[in-house]
Amino acid sequence: MVSIVARIKVKEGEGASFEKVAKELQAKVSANEPGCEYYALHKTDDPTVYVFIERYKDQAAIEAHRKSDHFRSLGKEMGQFMAGPPSVEVLQEA
């Protein structure tokens, strides 16, 4: 199993717009990616910081996610609300 933690800072006042697109992406991942076991957006105490927690069966499932049309299009749409690139940590299950 491979997990990913992606910390995203959004522009001030853009949280609701970011969440709307992120939740659409979350739904499409859940419906279309059998190799993804968990994909959820989380809020932090800071209203401008969100965290995606993701869990995949293997590296091939991550690659399929990254190449999917929904990730590419909705990821680009989310980018307009972000205050810089996400911080991404990849974790291998021990």
Automatic annotation (TrEMBL):
UniProt key word Oxidoreductase: yes
Sequence ranges assigned to domain ABM in this UniProt record: 2-90
Keywords on record: Monooxygenase, Oxidoreductase
Protein name per Swiss-Prot or TrEMBL: Quinol monooxygenase
Native organism: Camelimonas fluminis
Enzyme Commission numbers on file: 1.-.-.-
Lineage: Bacteria, Pseudomonadati, Pseudomonadota, Alphaproteobacteria, Hyphomicrobiales
Sample GO molecular function, one term: monooxygenase activity
Enzyme class: oxidoreductase
